[in-house]
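Before relying on records like the one below, remember that each one covers exactly one chain. Contacts with other chains, cofactors or solvent are not represented anywhere in the record.
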Amino acid sequence: MSNFCPIEWRKDPTPPSQIDCPDCGLLEHGTRMVWGEGNPAAPIMIILDNPGAREDREGNSFVCGTRQTLQKALHEVGFSPSDLYVTFIIKRKPTRAYDKEQTRATCMHKHLLKQLKENKPLLIICLGNIAVQSFFENQEAEVKTFRGKWHQVHGYRTAVAYHPLAVRRRPNLWKLFIEDLSFVSTGYQTLKKGPF
C-alpha cells in the first residue's frame, strides 16, 4: 500500500446539451455538472449518490476524502483505473435543501440510464444506501442486506457496497468494503473467462 497515492481521474466531459439542464432543479444551486470520471469504456461502472466536493474554497481542484478512500480500496483489491468509470445518481453537488426523491429519479432517468446504454458496462457497483435505493428504485433497499450477491437491475449485473465516506467515518467498515470490492473483482475475473 505504500506506493498508493490518490489522483484525479480523467473527467468525462458533460455533453454540451446537458450542461445547463434545468429538469431536476439543481442548476439553481450553482454547482457544475460532473458527468463522470475514469474510463467511459471501462467494464465496471461505479455509481455514487453525487459528485461531492471537487474544489477547495480557493477553487483549486482536489481529491476529496470519498474518492481517496474509494481509490485506495480499489487499488488494494487489484483494480486498475482503466477498469473503472465512476458516475452519479445526481450530477451536481446539492448546496441546500431540495426534493431528494424527485430529483434523484429525474436525474437517473434523464441522464444515468442513457449513460448506461452508451457506456455498456459489464458490471455495476452501487455505493451507499442512496445510490442503491435510487438505482434499484426501492426505498427499502439497504447495503447491509443487499451486499455479497449479484442483482439484476435495469438489465445490468449489479453489486452493492458501503459508501466510501461511511467507510472513512467508520473504520470498522473497511474490512466489509474490501470484501465487497473483492467480490466484484472475483466476478469480473470469472466473467473474463466466460459467463457466470
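The chain has six helices and seven strands.
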